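Crash report, auto-generated. Payload:
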Amino acid sequence: MASLDRSIVANVPVFAGLSPADLDVILSEARSVRYPRECSVFDQGTEAHSFFVLLHGHLRVEKMTPQGQQIVVRYVSAGELFGVAQAMGLKEYPATAIAVVESVALCWPSKAWQHLIARFPALAAGALQTVGNRLQDTQARVLEMSSEQVEQRIAHALLRLAKQAGRKVERGVEIDFPISRQDVAEMTGTTLHTVSRILSAWEQQGLVEGGRQRIVLREPHKLFGLAEGRSKE
Amino acid sequence: MASLDRSIVANVPVFAGLSPADLDVILSEARSVRYPRECSVFDQGTEAHSFFVLLHGHLRVEKMTPQGQQIVVRYVSAGELFGVAQAMGLKEYPATAIAVVESVALCWPSKAWQHLIARFPALAAGALQTVGNRLQDTQARVLEMSSEQVEQRIAHALLRLAKQAGRKVERGVEIDFPISRQDVAEMTGTTLHTVSRILSAWEQQGLVEGGRQRIVLREPHKLFGLAEGRSKE
DNA sequence: TCGTGGACTTGCGTTGCAGCAAACTGCGTC
DNA sequence: GACGCAGTTTGCTGCAACGCAAGTCCACGA
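Recovered output after restart:
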């Protein structure tokens, strides 16, 4: 396989604090893999054989209850470390990751983790930060679900998506990958129907613009107001 | 200060994989602190000056929304690492930790973290597992809040508490620290009133036994059935 | 012993949202 | 160009749980 140049991971926060030479060593153990749209990178319950860094694209991470209910855990964007189940002491992936657009990821065998962090403590520190941020996000979500109404939760979710994967278009900010009302419902702990109703209402007011698996925020600022719970005036 | 003997941390999972000599080095930088009941160990929003290992007692970790709503993030039991905000890249504690019973913790200055993990990679690995477990728990909670009814969520919460801090008594399993209905409500994203109603109903059926800041599970197995969503027969 | 306040209980009215059902629409495909 | 499906919209109905309010009970301190 052609060796990977370290310039491709220049913007990966988890590798910040590593010298170019260290990076070369780390990259020499990786291979890059392409995932077509709707293809799964790993599946909940299967052996955690690898960990990854997303180079390009977007993934949806979803998790299923024993009863068969599904939720969207989060979306992964380029530059993020993911699939570190093994490092967290799990033998199996706790969720499923699916490419929502054609994506490319670096991939290391999980067993490389042990000796990599022994040799490069900065890597462990970076991973700890990544997982820590995720923990913060997840706790924020619990807080939202405990204290906010559905409308506010959806507003928050859209704003977060826009921040993470927003693309400026003439009419506002578009979420840069296909996302259905069902997906939004699974992010916010509500139903497809309720999301549809609320987005329709917002579209009437000119706050958003919809479409098939497409959402454009036209008035992010007003949405932010809604998210913070200011009643509509 | 009297130096700390490594036997006191023999059962701390985060220190597994470290040699006795390593442990001595790590412990030499720690001091132990006693916290009376209802006393805070650290406060949300204040500088993350230290990280801790709980030696004895129980802590309640709670978090407040900007709007003033509060939730219980989790309970910390003896042997757990906590307050690792700095290691996760935060400058401030994201939550408040309060001793629910008289407690004792080991305490390190946050700035020690850097050089400790550089010297003892196993420590970083342990911390990653700790934070990883917490992430799993929090995600499980999101799943519960998305897919379960209040009654099931409360059953799950009580079973988790019993597992983590249950004490066998003649009549069943008692939760080993004072916990109010309000606390349970803040753990499950519901209200004091609803918790009270449900616990009363359960008490009628002989599933639990209540009291002022006291909960005894008399039929954990039946509760488990409820938690799994099997309708009451 | 009595008083006070915090924890808990319980009834009642209200409501946000889920659940069901049915129709619509845009997109890919044959 | 027609078909079929997946994604979406929308109306209606029911109910779980919230919010309020009015109590009771118990622990602790004076």
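Post-recovery validation: The mean pLDDT of chain A is 93.
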